[in-house]
Amino acid sequence: MKKSILTFAALFTGTFALAQNDIYALTGKSPQQIHFNDLRSLSVASDNAGNVLLSAEADVSVFSQNIKSVVKESRQTQHHVQTPAMAALAYSGGELIFSPMYSSNVYVMNEKSGKITLVENTAVKTSACDLTSHITRMTAGIDGHIYALNNAGTQLVRISKENGMYSVTDLGLVKDASTRPEESLRTVQTGFGGDMIADAQGNLYVLSASGNVFKISVKSLSSEYIGKIAGLPQGYSLNGAAVSADGNVIVGSAKSEGFYRINIDDLTATAGKNEVKYPVYDLASAHFLKQSGKSVPEATSAGIEVYPTRIIAGELNVRITDPSVTTAVIGLYDSFGTLVMSKTVKNAPRANSHLLNVGKLKQGLYIVTVGGEKGEQLHSVKILIE
Known about the structure:
Elements: E1 23-28, E2 36-42, E3 52-55, E4 62-64, E5 69-71, E6 86-92, E7 95-100, E8 106-110, E9 116-119, E10 135-140, E11 146-150, E12 156-162, E13 165-172, E14 175-176, H1 188-191, E15 195-198, E16 203-207, E17 212-217, E18 222-228, E19 238-243, E20 249-253, E21 260-263, E22 268-271, E23 280-284, E24 304-307, E25 310-311, E26 315-320, E27 327-334, E28 339-346, E29 353-357, E30 364-371, E31 377-385
């Protein structure tokens, strides 16, 4: 995965939804014990149950990256794509990445085709007898990599994609800045379980099962205690978290206790509609946290309009009515921050509408930017090409 351009990172946290169902969930069969049922898309906002992408009972084939062929996995072990113990999920660029709790295997599922790739690796150090070693938190980072963290915080791994191949790197121990057990990522009752999300500045956040929140710097591999979420029911087990299109955090519970919306700035929880209830083992989305005081401001301009934001016909229109903009550079970036199209246009009162043909680009989420002659960013918006 190529490094994202942080100038445009904040755009992933706006109000544009990938689709009606833009949250992904690992759900269970029973709230009494961990037993994987399916991987599905859903919409918490509309209480839409969504579509099942992978069922525990489905007959699936898995392609091994190592031996470059389809492999037959044994369901008699914990090392298979539909294992009952599943609690780590991430979404990036049309792919769902997940990993069994008792295994070092990493699986990548193409959302559109349903094809599943097995990424065998020696970097994940999971032991069936050591619950602290299990990977239970996973998220896509703003840099285009996937990050996964074990229960104890002693191993942070990075999953990367380069030239169509996946690699897993052990980043090592996350240093705990707190010396107080009640504010420590290392304490079972305080920091274990839960899920992980990312913000637009390159940080990770662990939301533990008990509702505590920790901020992790990927650069320094250190964590700090942010606080405890207020407003969740007594004993609520927080097992999945994902950033919604509006920049809030959606959390779910393995005990079928319903979905809640978390404001990350004040750590307050608000109950969702909760008409559709699932045992939730993990959640994922394509969005990143939008925090107050962010270092990379979102660029907007009343004199620039980009439409439509959902493209089916293959044409994108950029209209510039700001008279001060005589020359503009229109850029189109994919979800990894890679520039895929650029066009310099001359703007005039009677020639202010500029058409771009995007029909040959792959389906997915893109960022459109409009910059000035001096390289300044004037406007930016997300679009979806279908």
